[in-house]
Amino acid sequence: MSSVTAQYNGHKEQQTFKSQAPRWRRILHNATVIIAMLALLAVPFWLLVVTAGKTQAEALKLDMSLPDKWMLLENFATVIKDGKMVAALFGSIAVTVPAVLIAILFGSMASWILARRTTKPMAFLYALGISGLILPPAVVTVMMLLKMIGLSGTALGMICVYVGIYLSTVIFFVTGFIRTIPPSLEESMRVDGAKPARIFFTLILPLLSPTIATATILLILYIWNDVFYALFILSGKMSTLPLNLYNVASAGLYLNNWHLIFAYIILMSLPLLIIFAAAQRKIISGITGGAVK
Amino acid sequence: MLVVFFIVPTVMNFVFAFTDWSAFKNTIDFNGIDNFVTLFQDGTLLRDIRTTLIYAVCIAIFQNTFGLLLAVLLEEDTRLNRFARVMFFIPVIMSALAVGYIWQAVLKTDGALDQMLSALVGHHVTTGLLGNTTWAIVVISAIQGWKWMGLAMLIFLAGLKTIDADVIEAARIDGANAHQLFWTIKFPLLAPAFTFNVATSLLGSLNGFDMVQAMTKGGPGGSTEILNIFVWRTFGQGLYSQSTTMSMILFILVALIALPVIYFLRRRERNIF
């Protein structure tokens, strides 16, 4: 009884009817949630962890049983050494971090201008800008262009391509949001003699933080996990974590080495998982707050 | 940057699609529409377009159905529900390639699923889902939907949170049951979230690659070869002009589908609000 009262006081608006819902319904609901998690998530993740802990002979069977002897750390050590994971990790960081920062910064600057000047040419530029959101880039010719200017296979070339591809995503998210901010604030700053750059960094950018958070999360997910563009642009000269996984898994050396592939998958997922675990509340509320306006 | 790395290559793409550019020749000559004729005549063009469309539509259906069901299930802010939301978001942050390999291990012949089913019914069972020329593409799209359902769920949850509690209360006082409440009030009011989810999943998967590459590489017998798999395969063989031709076809395909889909979804939103 007391728990019901506490809830009633806690969320008066939402909980008025729910506190009247019979107890068995709540139990049924919780059971459904647990069953859904088990049915949808347990099998693949269990298989991932147990297989990564097995020896090659055991892992070949691909069953759900526990390994006879846990080899998880040994397998980790093997993939880090033979799979060149450290270089790939640095490759991933060297590409993802600058690409996301540049795309967000330039994207929000461009959006500010696009949102505030509503002339015909600006509307056209905006349409052109967000067309990149849905239209796939021409990957083969991008690669050839980079070869001509000597950036093929370099981190710089890859960063430029990602910025080019995802700038439109940022513009799409941010422009819609800026239009909801009243322009009177910036006008009063301008009257006080502030330069546009100052207005942007001290007023606009902080106001944009919810949408920028959402856009940053999506961009990190896309760029960190991308293989398709990396396959073309980096073409074996540099490595990122997913690209390395692709090479490792397709190489003859690793054929039928499920334990090593799975150990690799666990290790490569760790950086984002750790960030996500540390900031999950912010990330989830960021996405729910910023995506739909 | 957008101009240099997006628009210029796209324009160049339209030019090179009409040449015989390849790794085996030093010169690049125009050959008119030969690339299109070749691709059309050997059936690859239509087959790959069809496969890509099936793939994208199935993903849009799976991802949003799963996402909406989860959002409805996990709508209340209880501790268990919050935990479940976090768990369902883990596949979203994993690499599609990694997810593809894991599910390949589950679904392949004599993989984990076959063994569990065999143990359950007591004799040897093979589902062979990934070796089936009809169903493999649907299975892969279900997995892709599984990977992204956590994001769709969050966006639907965000949509549900924006619905005014008074509207729900009023409907309840008028005697609406849970079923009516959902279909006549909540679902229509989810329109903006629905637009975002359907548009991103449908258009994003036209441009898909990783999941298919990880699970079947376009096989069996080319039955799961979506356009980007073809682009990568012919690029690897040095047939650059065929690769660019297909890339251009993908571009046109997305443009043709995107405009009406977005127009339709936006009009639906306007009719509701």
Automatic annotation (TrEMBL), chain A:
Assigned keywords, A-Z:
Cell membrane, Membrane, Transmembrane, Transmembrane helix, Transport
Transmembrane stretches in the record are 27-49, 85-112, 124-149, 155-178, 199-224, 258-279
Main location class: membrane
**Residue ranges of domain ABC transmembrane type-1 in the record:** 89-279
What InterPro entries does the entry give? MetI-like, MetI-like_sf
List the membrane topology term(s).
Multi-pass membrane protein
Q: Which CDD domains match?
A: TM_PBP2 (cd06261)
- Identify the GO cellular component terms for this protein: plasma membrane
Q: Does the keyword Membrane apply?
A: yes
Compartment annotation: Cell membrane
GO BP terms: transmembrane transport
Spell out the family assignment given in the record's similarity comment.
Belongs to the binding-protein-dependent transport system permease family.
Q: What is this protein called?
A: Sugar ABC transporter permease
